[in-house]
Write a structure and sequence with these properties.
Rossmann fold; four-stranded antiparallel β-sheet; Siderophore_ABC-ATPase
Length: 279
């Protein structure tokens, strides 16, 4: 079942077109990850899906309804968005940050209701931040800070979470910590998650679906096994990749790679660069 979809979407800035004629669907209850080289349009697509950036033409549909026709507050009750490298005002506590996630459910400047406080406590517990509730956000470690922003997003109680590079600037352990949290939210809370990730192996490990983009075009979408192939990675990243199966997860892993050299092509079957003879 589709929760979010695009139809012939055209996105750009002024006269520059970033994405043209994009049509794809996000399946409800799944984790979908967008991959692709820098500047290919991933973050722009995410902004268009969230109605942060207006498309030049085409349409985004949320639950089958054109998103530009849905009131902003209704969208915020359905979809939470976590941008890349968000910043909190100085002196803001973890509890205060998470409380902002309740805004779509409040009227005017009303105080936190019992229900609001209940959800905030739940978000603190799920993200492992109970003991840090009164600590300033700007004093947290990278992983703690990212969990705090995720806690704010899930406090919106939305079915859909959109995250732009949620593991950026985090070390290996904190990256895994954040991704495992998102996976748990997906499995335990049935949250539909759409995220942009640069690490191909993380994308393959934690995704149900992958969307590979390049030059504003959808190159391939499907399962990790369908997208993490020698041929697709060559077309998307121009690399000669060696793909193996992870013994822990049975998901495909890019073990090693090199740049595809001029005048060479990839044997899609075994991942070996073979020289082309031009006659």
């Amino acid at each position: 079942m589709s929760i979010l979809s695009t139809e012939h979407l055209k996105i750009g800035y002024d006269e520059k077109i970033i994405v043209e004629d994009l049509s794809f669907t996000i399946q409800s209850g799944k984790i979908t990850t967008m991959i692709g080289p820098n500047g290919c349009g991933k973050s722009t697509i995410l902004k268009a899906l969230a109605r942060i950036h207006k498309a030049k033409s085409g349409c985004v549909y949320l639950d089958g309804k054109a998103i530009h026709k849905i009131p902003t507050k209704q969208i915020a009750q359905k979809m939470a968005v976590l941008p890349q490298s968000p910043e909190a005002p100085s002196g803001l506590t973890v509890f205060d940050l998470i409380s902002y996630g309740r805004s779509p459910h409040q009227k005017g400047f009303a105080r936190l209701s019992d229900r609001d406080k209940e959800v905030i406590e739940w978000a603190l517990k799920v993200t492992g931040l109970v003991e840090l509730r009164n600590q300033d956000v700007d004093t947290l470690s990278g992983g703690q800070r990212q969990r705090a922003w995720i806690a704010m997003a899930i406090a919106q109680e939305t079915e859909l979470l959109l995250l732009d590079e949620p593991t950026t600037y985090l070390d290996m352990a904190h990256q895994l910590e954040v991704l495992k949290l998102l996976k748990k939210l997906n499995e335990d809370e049935n949250r539909t998650i759409v995220m942009v990730i640069h690490d191909l192996n993380h994308a393959a490990r934690f995704s149900d679906r992958m969307v590979a983009m390049n030059n504003g075009r959808l190159m391939k979408e499907g399962t990790a096994e369908e997208v993490m192939t020698v041929g697709v990675l060559k077309d998307v990243f121009h690399i000669d990749a060696m793909i193996v199966k992870d013994p822990r997860t049975n998901k495909p892993v890019c073990l090693s790679y090199d740049l595809v050299e001029l005048g060479k092509d990839i044997d899609n079957k075994n991942g070996i660069a073979q020289e082309i003879v031009f006659v």
